[in-house]
Amino acid sequence: MKLALHRSMIFWSGLLAVGFVCWAWHDSYFLNRFANHRGYGISHMNGGIAMAKITTYFGTRHGSMNTSTFYRMETFPPPLFIRSEVPPGGTRPKAAVPDLHPPFTVKESWTITAKSESGSTRIFIPYWLILSFIALLWLALLLWRAKRRSTRIKV
User: Fold this and answer.
1) Which runs of consecutive H residues, i.e. helices, occur in 28-126?
2) Which of 22, 46, 75, 141 is 20 to 30 A from 103, comparing alpha carbons?
3) Cα→Cα distances 130→79, 125, 127, Å
4) pLDDT tens digits, one per residue of 35-60
5) At residue 122, does pLDDT exceed 90?
6) What φ, ψ does residue 73 adopt, rounded to 5°?
7) C-alpha dihedral sign at 102, 86, 34, 128
8) pLDDT on residue 88
9) Handedness of CA 112, 72, 46, 77 (dihedral sign)
10) Alpha helices in 2-122, H assignment, sequence order
11) Burial environment of residue 68 by CB neighbours within 10 A (0 to 12, 13 to 18, 19 or more)
């Protein structure tokens, strides 16, 4: 029995999804593409997707910028969830301003920001995690298709 993958919608859809995530992962190391609206933001940066709730309102913005001068690039960055240590409406602790000489990793930069910004939340989902989820789902669907085809041919 031949699998006939070239005729499978599951195969081509999975190949397209994996290709897109690999392209996005590669592209995220060169440009930070972002969109902000009413204190919520999403960004494609440094090997992952970053989402943020920020209390400082900048209006609606979108665009892109080179981030290689701001962050130290990591091949497999860790997933992050960072919540501000200062409650909304609270006051910042009187501490010395850290030496802000780049490059930082995303985790180092966000940890410093969480100590000074009130009421913000940031989530970072790396592309390697997204790619592994898509690959597992794709493999499961291909196995399901193969099982379904083998039972249909035997009967």
Assistant:
1) 106-116
2) 22
3) 11, 8, 5
4) 888 778 888 888 899 888 876 656 66
5) no
6) -80, 135
7) positive
8) 59
9) negative
10) 9-27, 106-116
11) middle
pTM score: 0.76
Return mean pLDDT, the chain: 78
Tokens describing residue 102: 């780049």
Q: What share of the chain is helix, strand, coil (3-state, %, to 5)?
A: 40, 25, 35
Instruction: Look up tokens 């992050």; give the residue.
Output: 80
How many Å separate Cα 108 from the centre of its chain? 17
- Lookup result for tokens 């501000």: 84
Each as own residue / partner, the long-range contacts of residues 130-133 (CB below 8 Å, 24 or more positions apart, any chain) are 130/21, 130/49, 131/18, 131/21, 131/22, 131/25
Alpha carbons 132 and 54: distance in angstroms, whole number = 29
